[in-house]
Each structure stands twice: as structure tokens, then as C-alpha cells.
Amino acid sequence: MAKFEEGLRYSESHEYIRVEGEYGYIGISDYAQHALGNVVYVDMPEVDDEVTAGEEFGAVESVKAASDLISPVSGIVVEVNEALEDKPELLNEDAFANWIIKVQLSDPSELDALMDVEAYKAHCNE
Length: 126
Fold this sequence. Notes:
By secondary structure, this protein is of the alpha+beta class. 18% of the residues lie in helices and 35% in strands. The protein has four helices and nine strands, in the order E-E-E-H-E-E-E-E-E-H-H-E-H. The protein has helices spanning 30-36, 83-86, 90-93, 117-124, and strands spanning 9-10, 15-20, 23-28, 39-43, 50-51, 56-62, 66-70, 75-80, 101-105. The strands form two sheets. The chain has a six-stranded antiparallel sheet. A three-stranded antiparallel sheet has the order 4-6-7. Strand 6 (56-62) and strand 7 (66-70) form a beta hairpin. The protein is globular and about 35 Å long.
């Protein structure tokens, strides 16, 4: 059974963002990691790359599927979770603790277009 975390914003493509000040930590939801199965590889952008809301910034590969990562917001990548390079399975262990990229938000108003936890639960149950 997928876990849902309060206080995050979610996209329809199952990415989440945890906002802390002008920064956002972006990862895949627990629902997404369950759907993917055993994650074997995470393709991430480089630090200083620009991401755009609604556009691809990387991919997650599992034993059964590959899935594009779609950025929920626009901004500049300030950090990538290097632990995932050697241990992509961390996403299966705890998707919310193991974010993929940290971005400096360029337009915080984009967060308004994302779902809160209740709306995301409803989306997952459709």
C-alpha cells in the first residue's frame, strides 16, 4: 500500500516537491516507486542545469519499466542526490526521504498548479 506524505505538492506524473524557502526537493512518490518495482538506475541532470515545469529532467529505470521524470516546477538544479548513483534502490526503500534533485525555484507561483496530498490521493485512486 502506497504511503502519502502531508505538506508536499504532487504532480499528475507522480513527482513530489518539498519546498524549503526558495528551494525545492523533487523526487518520485511512494505510489510511483510501487508502480515501477525494483529501481535499478536513476538518470539525473547536472548541477546548474535548468529544469522547466512540465518538462523532462531525467528518468527512473526499474526491472520492468523506464519512466521519464517530469519537473513539477521551473528552476536551477543546485544539488543532485549522488547516493542514488550507487544505490538507486533507495527510492524503493523510502521514496520521500530520497529526493532526486534540489532546485532553486524560479517561479514559486507554479506550486499553485500542483496537488496537495488529498487531491493526489484521489488522483491515484482514479
